């Protein structure tokens, strides 16, 4: 039982606070022989990096990953994993601790301030300490390795809803996702969200969002019945992301509303003689085990509780106070949750892949 | 990594197939000194027991629990736990294996038949084998012990939606829940669901449902940040129930649609000088840690895929076939998921309670 | 963290007390497709069974194993595993609880009576309850399955020392082991031990022993560096056996006394062009990873503390008392530890085998 | 299953290679409110630090620990833990990678070179990579925190045997241990070992050793029956140290040689009315649970296989070669194992302490 570790064979332990000197992770169980470059890893980090548009926090961090162990450098300059734990470190540079001094003893509504104090009796209040979404940088680094574990696997995500504005799924175009600041697959929705979020941002308010993650080229047979269902582990990974309050697989809550005929995916024999599914309401998972279809998961992110307006609260001394978040502001934290969701799904799939194939594939 | 175990300090391992001689569980980590009677345990079993109304499967099982270890009997006749593992066994009696022979090599759409075969290359097809919801009887037995771990904790659940028929939350009355065959808290909805499900049942079809679980008297401070968030562990437990495709805490997916001002629960000082929350959008959990408010979780159950109508599928030999489930039929498996959901939430809370308080409270 | 479970991918959970209705285990992670018969399993049980000579306890138990789940019966009558958890149950029949009533509140020196009471505040005193060596019957059953996991693996053990009487290793003959009541590989030592143990037995005393376990046909590459060293996991498994106070691999404590030149096993290229070791001081493990040589482990069993002579002790009420064990008596519990040691080593090796090869070998 | 993590509630994950930029650990589960200084931590590091006498490796490392997370600095300058993971980093400075280029493809007898290659197909050969004893620096840092978890606990160790030269236990004087380069508690043995090791060192050879660890002020009741026995977890922790081939608790292998009367510790009522033991053959553990007496464990370290003399071996290309270790040389690695053994025992005890008391003691 490790509160800061997830996964079993592809096992990620993260550490670090928002305003400490650094944060990072140890990826234990990474198979030997995976090749990657720091630039390749950085590609994923940059997707999550703060300060990239006016719709996300203006904190400036390079989020450069240092790989401290578990690899050897090849003549090509690439790194190759050796099977030993990969330690990765990301320095904190733009910390501005003074911004937070006012809330050292005040509980921001909707934040973990109160519950950390109840649980631990001590709390690193600077920037939210350990409960800061900054912790997720380490997850994205780990996800960069996880993506390499399952051959040819592609894991990508998109924002499908901000507040009550949902995309038109008929307009879904993956090539749009990286072409706008929202990871939005529906080009027509982009200006709508821009206007909407500008209003939210100027009001010092915030709003929630829904993200959809799709994993392709996941072999059939991953997962396990009963208490290590693939959907269970994917959902647990997504629920561990800050501010996530709901998760679903395939039709999800929508499955409750339809009949068994509508929901159960029928099968036929495909042109290659192999079974094919005629639909994917199951989101690629039956009985906790992957079917070979794309894995589809969605998760809901609540509006950040750091808003620039007064809220009623209490302090650690038992006084009633009004709290208004200062410091930097994220009108929709759901946006930056897109690469984090990808990383967490990739990690779950890498983990289950290794459970079936073993940690070192070299023995015959 | 144990695929048939859940929990860390309150640790449940289940075993058994639908049509084997028995099924059961081992509860490891049950603290010493818990007192209970077999009758008390049976109360929870009876809530889940099949055959109690025309809306659930007609399989007849007594579901009597035998407690084989981990307890001593007191003079009062009650059992008291000793801290060693509690093994509980439930015999299968009404098995009718012949009902299933036709589908030994056919994959029922929406079932785990195909994925089990892909994964294991062998499958106990009788009644779904290990993937049968019958496995959940063992969870309810374990939940009966879990309820005793956290002092005064009350965990109860209700069905809030069948198909697209949702209850009116204004009519919520816990006393109604055990007074109708649906665990419905809204008396006015009961006749609506009766008519609706009769239609479904007679059509040989099925429909999904949504269940809400509420846990009261959960002390503040349970849970852990990051990868053992209380909401994460509750959701993982619920996602492990057969046919569950979505889970949410507090406002859940609804939180995505509202603003930070609307969603974050404000605080004041209560009459006793202690902090109180003015609302519970968080579902009793902030930053992965309980606030002391009721824990509120919901989960969506898909319509059972065992329907009495022909569906297109394939068999293990690569033939296209039509499959129609014979055997007994559950028009809405969501109904019997109510006591299972309670059990899984109780287990998650017992587990986290022990992580904070330790497994044996006797040392000073 | 499960106190009654061991192993990670081949995962064994045991339950049961000496004088409860039954004891057993759940083996989770057993790969699908293993074939075995109840008779084959019983062969190992019978090696451990009590009452087989005057040198072990006279309790009479059939120790018949019932396999309750995780298997299907083939037409040949053999059982084949399906990949789901295998639950095995052994009934207790010859319990004689009254023998133990006198020591309900008295702490037998050298037993776990005092520490269980300190820890749990309650104790099943009948026959030692959970701390009875009877629990090990479940391990032997699990070991019977573990033996099937690694192809061609042979795990066998022998008693090499009783008290200070050690065998002559030059006389080692495996074929002798099952030909005497001591599992002794040195035929010349058998009469010596008979006389010695008769004296011990008649004096109501007891004596310790050392057991050596050898596993052959273990492929090179099993194990893991640092905290899951193969020697570490083997030793942990052996130390978990009741009354074991020391464990060693290869030269063990003897390695402390010799030079690096003497201890390090040199290598050459064998006739088949593959590396061969010229000695096996390492006991088949280097850096925590198997070399392909036989795995050699030894463990020391203390003399049982159940002796028929008065010993000074205290009771739960704070009185000084004299305690003399009544009930049945094992002059050398080390004898019956031989099949238990085999089982625990087999389980460790099966577990590590699966970590490398994956839990389901069917996917390509 | 994490190959580079140990412990359950006090959970240590280490990372790093001998010749990478750094190594370190993440301690997860450290309770909040522990106070320590970097100097206090460094005290333990310095005991293990290389280059402190002519009897250990001449590598020069400062082994300064940087604490990167999980703490806040108090006005006094002390650090206080917050309950979040403590990441500690130690830079490698004196690496001399060129020393090792010759053995990149040659297998040093007695080393993990061959087995790493078999398992992973790739190996960081520089200084032994991950299998270097340099990894243990991270353990000593973790042990520095573990010592603070159990109130008033003292864990200390001494070297009791080098080669076949054993100390006279009658001369045991803890105050001598830090007064000589061997951590020897017997002042009379020091000159004997000096002469002996000088001979070994000059011959380019090496020799093994035995270390005894004693933990005092360990409360009764720690540990767990069956598969998390306190002795089992201590032994597993000690067996995970490089080059350890045997472990024992209390009388250990010696218990095999004596009678039940001699071995079982009798009890009486002490002057304060509480039970006292009249001897400690059990090494402070009965039935896997601490008795309140000092915990006594011993472990055997094999002679290092890095010797300056030619040994027969093979290379990765299938050639027979002679291998002679160059680089720096440790004639008796057992010496530096003394502080490592202390750290590993402290970690095991901290872990079990938290299992009983819970991870956060603040809730009432």
From TrEMBL, chains A, B, C, D:
It catalyses: 5-O-(1-carboxyvinyl)-3-phosphoshikimate = chorismate + phosphate. Belongs to the chorismate synthase family. InterPro entries: Chorismate_synth (IPR000453), Chorismate_synth_AroC_sf (IPR035904), Chorismate_synthase_CS (IPR020541). Its EC number is 4.2.3.5. GO terms for biological process: amino acid biosynthetic process; aromatic amino acid family biosynthetic process; chorismate biosynthetic process. This reaction introduces a second double bond into the aromatic ring system. The lineage of its organism: Bacteria, Pseudomonadati, Pseudomonadota, Alphaproteobacteria, Hyphomicrobiales. Keywords: Amino-acid biosynthesis, Aromatic amino acid biosynthesis, FAD, Flavoprotein, FMN, Lyase, NADP. NADP(+) binds at residues 48, 54. The keyword Hydrolase does not apply. FMN binds at residues 130-132, 242-243, 287, 302-306, 328. Pfam families: Chorismate_synt. This is Chorismate synthase. Its cofactor is FMNH2. NCBIfam families: aroC, PRK05382.1. GO terms for cellular component: cytosol. Pathway: Metabolic intermediate biosynthesis; chorismate biosynthesis; chorismate from D-erythrose 4-phosphate and phosphoenolpyruvate: step 7/7.
